[in-house]
Amino acid sequence: MNRIRKGDRVIVTTGRDKGRQGTVVQVLDNDRLMIENINVVTKHQKGNPQAGVAGGIIKKEASIHASNVMLFNPQTNKADRVGFRTLDDGRKVRFFKSNGEVLDA
Q1: Exposure on the CB side of residue 6, measured as CA atoms within 13 A
Q2: What is the CATH number of the domain that holds 15?
Q3: Fewest CB atoms less than 10 Å from the CB: which of 23, 38, 53, 59?
């Protein structure tokens, strides 16, 4: 079970985009995340007329490692650590370490 999932709001803790917030768009299998409008890079793309792809300089989102982001806690408006807890009915859920609130209700 991953600490960060698709659709979570996260805050970047290190790097060029430190302090910025975004929503996780995709979770890649090697602990990397695609976050909207975070880690935007410039790519020189070669055109392909047969596929209808125009060449030129484009901006696209690159992946960022999961260790460089933390989940956003709406109650405290800060980044927060995440833990796991098993409920009485046997479900394993995530919770914020600072206030103990369950994320996956």
Answers
A1: 5
A2: 2.30.30.30
A3: 59
Amino acid code (one letter) for 95:
F
pTM of this prediction?
0.84
pLDDT, tens digit (0-9, with 9 covering 90-100), for 62-76:
999 999 999 999 999
Is residue 84 in some structural domain? no
The residue with tokens 């394993």 is 92
Cβ neighbours of 73 (radius 10 Å): 20
Q: Which of 15, 57, 62 is nearest to 36 (CA)?
A: 62
Which residues does residue 65 pair with via DSSP β-bridges, in sequence order?
Answer: 32
Q: What size, in residues, is the chain?
A: 105
CB-count exposure of residue 47 (10 Å: 0-12, 13-18, 19+): exposed
Q: How many other CB atoms are found less than 10 A from the CB of residue 20?
A: 15
